[in-house]
Design goal:
The chain contains four helices and no strands. With about 110 residues, the protein is mainly α. This is DUF1493 family protein.
Amino acid sequence: MQTLEPPDKMLEALRRFWGNDSRIEDVNADTQIVTDLGIYGDDFSEFYEILSETYGTDFLVPAECVPSEFGWMRTLKGWLPFVETKKAIPVASLSVAELDAIMCGRESHANK
């Protein structure tokens, strides 16, 4: 199975957000914004500003796709010491490709 390359604008936004971080090398079209990249809450707000500048749009990303910084507090799992915080947060799927489609106005994500 071949992994699709991430959209160029998304990579540009990630480079601006992270700088020259080696994590960018592992990003593909199916990479999940919250669970794989750990971008949520205040970090996502900052990333979204960069996305809006990069794409020249400001389409809204559904809140269920990007939980607040303290979303883990509403879950029992999040309080357990052996559970990784970002994995305890209930979140709807939002891949790099899906976020690109939202920012380009091709998808609203409301139908998912």
